[in-house]
Amino acid sequence: MQKYKPMTVIKWVFLFGFIYVLPFGWDQFHEIEWETFTTNIWWAFAFVVVGTTFLAYFFNVFGLKELSPSVVSIYIYSQPLIASIMAIVLQKDELSFEKILAALFIFSGVYLVSTKKSVKKIA
User: Fold this and answer.
1) Contact of 106 with 78, CB cutoff 8 Å
2) How far is Cα 88 from Cα 103, in angstroms, rounded to an integer?
């Protein structure tokens, strides 16, 4: 990450992602009725593609360049938690045991990989 600029990394990630996904999504992409999109749908589409996808990946790469990997991992793994909390607050989803358990597993894993380990030498 020190060698390349964040925009260069994202350009190649999205290009290869597009190439790999295209064969699997071509039929669904072909079925989209673009002419039926209203202005609100185009704004929502742009928000999802640019705001929540491109910018999220860009800031992840930028963070890896500027911060420690553990800080970036906390940011990355916090995103689904924040999205779930917002969905529950907006009453679009319900809190369940599985969601609580998943959050505990995620943050336990982040904690385990971000703590420094002291290794005892056996003589």
Assistant:
1) no
2) 14
Pick out the chain residues at pLDDT < 70. 1, 117-123
Domain residues for the domain of 91 are 68-113
C-alpha–C-alpha distance, residues 76 and 73, integer Å: 5
Q: Hey, how many other C-beta atoms are within 10 angstroms of the C-beta on 104?
A: 10
Q: Look up the pTM and report it.
A: 0.59
- The residues, any chain, with a CB within 8 Å of residue 81's CB and separated by 6 or more, are 103, 106, 107
Residue 20 lies in a domain: yes
Give the C-alpha separation, 84 to 92, whole Å: 9
